[in-house]
Amino acid sequence: MKVKEILEKAYHESNLTKDEIKLLLMAEGEDKDLLFKTADRVRKEHVGDEVFLRGLIEFSSYCKNDCFYCGLRRSNQNAQRYRMQEDEIVEVAKRAYQMGYRTVVLQSGEDMYYTKDRLCSIIKKMKRVVDVAITLSIGERSYDEYKVFKDAGADRFLMRFETSNEKLYRKYHPGMSFENRIECLKWLKKLGYELGTGFLIGLPGQTLDDLAQDIILVKELDADMIGIGPFIPHPQTPLKDAKEGSVDLTLKSIAILRLLNPDANIPATTALGTLDPLGRQKGLMCGANIVMPNVNRLEYKLKYELYPGKICINEDATKCRGCIESIIVSVGRKVGQGKGQSRHYKRAS
Ligand code: 5AD
Ligand code: FES
Questions:
Q1: Which of 149, 188, 233, 261 has the fewest CB atoms found within 10 Å of its own CB?
Q2: How far is ligand 2, taken at its centre, from the CA of residue 230, in Å?
Q3: In the CATH scheme, what is the code of domain 3-338?
Q4: pLDDT digits 0-9 by tens, 97-155
């Protein structure tokens, strides 16, 4: 089958086989241009020209896990650790609201200092004082905890499965289980969270076949939001000498994900912007409709080092807000108003 025919099928059916996905991942030249153009059209038809902003608050850099690629891994003795307290977190959310954000993402390493009660209290307080949608990105917890957080007011949850190749998953996530992660994602969906998941592009050993499977798994999980980004080697991790993920493959994956999940929210991620100065613009032009600027204070931004070279690390949140807006306008789009709930989620509920 030719790329053109595959794209036509994807456009009409929002479905592809693994082999078809692989062919799209290999598209070059005119074929690649057509892939991006088709994805951009699907984006426009299903989610429109608005680009929604999510204010990212990275509230703790402690993590009990030891993921091979991540700078926050517990074995990284050089990582600078911090924990923000409730009042401070809520204060940042307030400031984000004043800058126009209507969604905040509370992200951290897997840090059990934030017990069920502490997190509930943060969520409730935030909901009382700021009118924002709350997205949690705190990793694996029990069903009961997820339920309590939802009842306390959390709206959405982000957790990438990172890779669908179980062998690779085991290798790069010591002490963790792929099965449990998928179970968590299913619980979150069942509990009524707007669900975000995704994967890393370019983990050493990952094949095109794996990537195609990752794309299929996202669809199977019925994700409302899909975050993917290139792997970037961190010097204080076991993968320090590995090659970084490909920007080109990331863009193609974004495009294919848009074709298969027409009404999902898909961010142009910071990692993409880190490897390519125009990465976020390119992402927005081949299917993405979300940007997630960090709204934390400089001091914390510097310490939350998943990977090196992160963009905007020296900018304060106000400057980022303006910069992001000009990026959005430069690609012919506009900043979304309101909370920007996933249309996929809306349609299902
Ligand atoms: N390069 C790129 N992305 C990374 N993440 C963690 N470490 C890295 C890295 N070295 C991503 C993971 C995680 C998200 C919060 O950050 O996919 O889910
Ligand atoms: Fe942060 Fe450009 S988005 S400075």
A1: 233
A2: 19
A3: 3.20.20.70
A4: 999 999 999 999 999 999 999 999 999 999 999 999 999 999 999 999 999 999 999 99
